[in-house]
Amino acid sequence: xxxxxxxxxxxxxxxxxxxxxxxxxxxxxxxxxxxxxxxxxxxxxxxxxxxxxxxxxxxxxxxxxxxxxxxxxxxxxxxxxxxxxxxxxxxxxxxxxxxxxxxxxxxxxxxxxxxxxxxxxxxxxxxxxxxxxxxxxxxxxxxxxx
Length: 146
Hints:
The chain is an alpha+beta fold. The chain has helices spanning about 50-65, 80-90, 115-125, and strands spanning about 1-15, 25-35, 70, 95-105, 110.
């Protein structure tokens, strides 16, 4: 069985080797779909607990990317590269990870299923570029008491 959960985040980036407008810093409202696929567990009745999936995506992906500058994590942050990066953040900890689909705009997305050749191509294309260091460390927000 295949399960999918949707997440949203806001982020900015630029694509350094792009010959058009994407070379300039700009932002997107991303929609992220994480899918797992596997057998239904006979004891839990689930493939994966949605709460656990959400916790992992929040901790490993959204805490870094949401309202951030993607070039701080991904030197060449195309939609394809971001999808591979997200896969790499989740692959060891989210059981049965099957697919990362990332919508950069409402009508443009990438789907990554762990294909090694695509990851190698992205790594090769990213070599000339460095990560940036623009995002300040995240601070814990504390409730203001009156």
